[in-house]
């Protein structure tokens, strides 16, 4: 940002808990706050649980300020923090504290923005839908419609979500993704040393995400069984945290299908080991039923690993434009695409390079963060 540019508004982000095992929302808030601060924004992250706030934030002068709110008087301290900023940015429609924070913002004449993170998508609203509709009727819709803008990450999300806040406007901006630098990627060796099953000539498939029924891991296992039946050799790595009972259910399914010997449940993988794991695999596969942005998708592409996913991802047109394969979330359709792609692993490497170049341009952090800064400025000017 140039020295002559107007100073960005001061912004406060609120997220109930900063715990990485909670999923992609935490990651996207951390990345957004970090990049905004690097672009000269005065950023405050308020939370009741700062467990996984990056340690280096405390060492850098241009890092977000973290306010860990005490549970017994979080309202008063949140108000004090809000008094010191120009605009508030709330995350998820279902955190009930957000309705109180919206009232605080209104009482201080501060505009606020709400990111819904795919939680108003049709698939999400069809699951436990009655409870969600009641909450929207009681308080959630008022909170959404009082926002300067409801933030969606793709046009597809805005089309689905907008019906739940008819008197509010959407703002569509992609997430800020703290993508790995291709020049400093660790290479596949670290992952191979950590997970010896990677040291094989077999094709290597990777699923990396929170293990949840909506992610379609069961579909991937059934597709993997079809690959075996068709004579395709592979090793499948399933990485990510999940409820123990559900993980056990998936492991039992792999055994029942006869693919346990080449299906590896490796738990949560982070840092350089995660990046190395992407690089060590031929394909990243996310056969999800619903995904808002799917941070793992651009992350995989940034590591040069091509992607197979479904139209359940709101950003699937952008992911397809990056050279990825979009398929139905059905075992046979998925198996057909995997078999076709794995038949030419050299071509996969070319797809990986194409995807990396596209993602670097589309999600350039400086360009994307400027979109958020402009949104904050507009909110302040129109309050």
Automatic annotation (TrEMBL):
Assigned EC number: 2.4.-.-
One family name in Pfam for this protein: Glycos_transf_1
Domain Glycosyl transferase family as annotated: residue spans: 198-349
Transferase found in the keyword field: yes
Boundaries of every Glycosyltransferase subfamily 4-like N-terminal domain copy: 23-174
Alphabetic keyword roster: Glycosyltransferase, Transferase
Claim: Transmembrane helix is one of the keywords in the record: no
Single GO MF descriptor: glycosyltransferase activity
Source species, domain of life: Bacteria
Cited InterPro entries: Glyco_trans_1, Glyco_trans_4-like_N, Glycosyltransferase_grp1
Descriptive protein name: Glycosyltransferase
Origin organism lineage: Bacteria, Pseudomonadati, Planctomycetota, Planctomycetia, Pirellulales
């Amino acid at each position: 940002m140039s020295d002559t540019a107007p100073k960005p508004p001061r912004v406060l982000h609120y997220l109930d808990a900063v715990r990485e095992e909670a999923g992609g929302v935490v990651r996207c808030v951390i990345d957004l706050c970090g990049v905004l601060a690097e672009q000269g924004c005065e950023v405050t992250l308020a939370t009741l649980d700062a467990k996984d706030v990056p340690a280096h934030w405390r060492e850098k002068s241009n890092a977000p300020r973290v306010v860990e709110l005490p549970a017994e008087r979080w309202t008063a301290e949140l108000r004090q923090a809000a008094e010191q900023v120009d605009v508030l940015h709330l995350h998820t429609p279902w955190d009930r504290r957000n309705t109180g924070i919206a009232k605080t913002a209104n009482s201080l004449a501060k505009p606020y923005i709400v990111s819904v993170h795919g939680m108003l998508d049709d698939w999400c609203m069809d699951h436990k839908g009655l409870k969600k509709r009641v909450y929207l009727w009681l308080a959630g819709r008022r909170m959404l419609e009082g926002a300067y803008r409801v933030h969606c990450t793709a046009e597809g999300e805005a089309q689905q979500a907008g019906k739940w806040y008819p008197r509010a406007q959407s703002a569509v901006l992609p997430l800020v993704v703290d993508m790995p630098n291709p020049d400093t990627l660790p290479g596949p060796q670290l992952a191979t040393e950590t997970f010896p099953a990677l040291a094989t000539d077999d094709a290597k498939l990777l699923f990396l995400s929170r293990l949840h029924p909506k992610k379609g891991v069961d579909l991937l296992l059934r597709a993997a069984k079809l690959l075996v039946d068709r004579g395709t050799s592979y090793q499948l790595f399933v990485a990510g945290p999940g409820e123990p009972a559900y993980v056990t259910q998936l492991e039992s399914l792999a055994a029942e299908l006869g693919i346990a010997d080449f299906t590896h449940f490796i738990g949560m993988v982070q840092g350089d080991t995660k990046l190395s794991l992407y690089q060590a695999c031929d394909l990243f596969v996310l056969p999800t039923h619903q995904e808002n942005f799917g941070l793992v998708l651009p992350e995989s592409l940034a590591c040069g690993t091509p992607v197979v996913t479904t139209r359940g991802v709101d950003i699937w047109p952008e992911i397809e434009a990056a050279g990825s394969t979009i398929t139905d979330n059905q075992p046979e359709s998925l198996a057909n695409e995997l078999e076709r792609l794995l038949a030419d692993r050299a071509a996969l490497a070319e797809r990986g390079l194409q995807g990396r170049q596209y993602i670097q341009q589309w999600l350039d952090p400086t360009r994307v963060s400027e979109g958020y800064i402009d949104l904050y400025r507009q909110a302040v000017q129109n309050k």
